[in-house]
Design a protein that fits this description.
Rossmann fold, 7 helices, five-stranded parallel sheet, alpha/beta
Length: 150
């Protein structure tokens, strides 16, 4: 057998052996989807970050005046927004989402309280999913995964 053929066969066996030990699917690092977590509550944002960062690339924003700019510059795959309890602030958040995140899936976290019928309708129209606080992080994580698969 010529030396070149022998080396080629050895190299082929090495690649074959490597593929058996390390299938392409499990050895390549998957790119994590970007999730923007907007919450004025730093503790809630930190809690969500710690619980979701294994599966997703989490970016936090807590300032309403930077929310729109962050959506525009980051272009996240999903927005997880903690709605304020004050109706005027919720209206501002919803306006920003309406302008900047129209094609981006949105999950809303909100207090269990009735606002005005118009605000409740806007939340329902803009959010793909809504969770009432306190919310189960595992359910939120599953909802994020489900929305990102679409």
């Amino acid at each position: 057998m010529p030396l070149a053929d022998h080396e080629s066969r050895i190299a082929g066996n090495a690649v074959s052996s490597l593929q058996e030990k390390c299938p392409v699917v499990s050895c390549t690092s998957a790119v994590k989807k970007r999730v923007l977590v907007f919450s004025p509550d730093a503790d809630l944002a930190r809690f969500l970050l710690m619980n979701l960062e294994e599966k997703f690339q989490i970016v936090r924003e807590h300032r309403l005046d930077l929310f729109e700019h962050t959506i525009q510059s980051l272009l996240p795959d999903l927005v997880l927004v903690d709605l304020f309890t004050f109706p005027n602030d919720i209206i501002k958040q919803l306006d920003i989402i309406r302008r900047r995140a129209m094609a981006i899936p949105v999950i809303a976290l909100r207090a269990y309280m009735t606002l005005t019928p118009e605000i409740d309708k806007s939340i329902n129209d803009l959010a793909d999913n809504t969770f009432y606080k306190p919310a189960d992080v595992e359910l939120i994580s599953q909802a994020i995964e489900d929305l990102l698969k679409k």
